[in-house]
Amino acid sequence: MNPTVTAGPDTFITGTTHSPMDRPLTLVILGAGARGAAYADLAARRPDAARVVAVAEPREQVRDTFAAEHHIAPEYRFEHWRDLLARPRLADVAVIALPDADHVAAAVALADLGYQLLLEKPMATNEADCEAIAAATRRNGTALALTHVMRYTPYTAKLKQLLAEGTIGDIVSLQHLEPIGYYHYAHSFVRGNWRREDESSALLLAKSCHDIDWITDVVGGRVARVSSFGSLTHFRPETAPDGATDRCVTCPLQDTCAYSATTLYREGLRNGGTKQYFTRIMSEGELTEQAVTAALTDGSYGRCVYHCDNDVVDHQVVNLEFHGGVTASFTLTAFTPLENRHTKIFGTQGQLTGDGRHIEVYDFRTETRTIHDTSLDGSSAAEGHAGGDDAMFNAYLDALHSGRPELIVSGIDASLVGHRVVFAAERARLAGAVVEL
């Protein structure tokens, strides 16, 4: 039997300049939902490098289940992350997987207490709060990493290597698609926590700050101008099919509707796979027929997608012009299968086409195609973001545990770049204007 975990030693690491450690890093998880639980599970795979010693989670059942799984002592189980502020520092690292609106308060307060930070994206819901987090990390010398997992995937590493080797010459333009997936969008952005801007943030920030960050990283330059267009067109009351009711369990269309909650969550319960990830969220981790039926009957995830209180866009395009003339276009849309992102990069000597796993290089000079298989598929959170979750988390652990801060490639300065572009794109969309950065 594993022993109950208590908090770490009196002396904790500070910043990114520490020497290699002879003990595991200690972690406190703020928010034991899907993302917080995923990071805790990754830590459990490396007990020599990391131990979860505390948790803050408002849902009692979720908190107790999480704490039992990770052997956390009762005195280190907190209802609210602010409970940590009245205590001496409990761990080396705070993993912030809270609702987006809570990121700034938690990150600033915990950085000031000396915690190192692993911060779930987005950094914060507005530019001023992002800058406040940056200021807090700088004044405290905090080792912060954003969970921009796309930067860490084997696919991205290979793609950037090919570009650096001049395989397609100089980049002229880039085209990138994020296919959110119809049932993922319905779960998270119509019924779920990110359905309303006033309760979370704009879709571009909540879902695709990853992609804007990735584009700026791949191109490697600074964005000069941004334009954007998008709206909520489909998931509205006026587009509901005739006969649709407010909840799927009472709807005569539940067996034929593409967005049926009963179909999605019961299929996840019975057949597992990617859909079980979403079923687990809607039933708060209890994978039983009774729990799923109760959530469908009374919970937010059982509502008709045409009769929710959602207001975030269901499709958007962003156009970028970089200093030096490189252009990029980005599309995010709800109306796709749940599949990998698709990218084309157009260079002076060739074209690179990628799907999150395979990279095809077409050489203008030889008129040949070369395909590189990076061996990992599945870009969704349920699938570990094509190895990005593991690689990002392990890079952060190794950066701190082994004294190698260069392993953090999604630090505060790099991550601010993409976030600033996202906020500029939203200003452009709302104003119908081209915004200069």
Automatic annotation (TrEMBL):
Pfam families: GFO_IDH_MocA, GFO_IDH_MocA_C. Residues 27-146 form the Gfo/Idh/MocA-like oxidoreductase N-terminal domain. Residues 160-414 form the Gfo/Idh/MocA-like oxidoreductase C-terminal domain. SUPFAM superfamilies: Glyceraldehyde-3-phosphate dehydrogenase-like, C-terminal domain, NAD(P)-binding Rossmann-fold domains. InterPro entries: Gfo/Idh/MocA-like_OxRdtase_C (IPR004104), Gfo/Idh/MocA-like_OxRdtase_N (IPR000683), Gfo/Idh/MocA_Oxidoreductases (IPR051450), NAD(P)-bd_dom_sf (IPR036291). Gene3D superfamilies: Dihydrodipicolinate Reductase, domain 2, NAD(P)-binding Rossmann-like Domain. Belongs to the Gfo/Idh/MocA family. PANTHER family: BILIVERDIN REDUCTASE A (PTHR43377), BINDING ROSSMANN FOLD OXIDOREDUCTASE, PUTATIVE (AFU_ORTHOLOGUE AFUA_4G00560)-RELATED (PTHR43377:SF2). This is Gfo/Idh/MocA family protein.
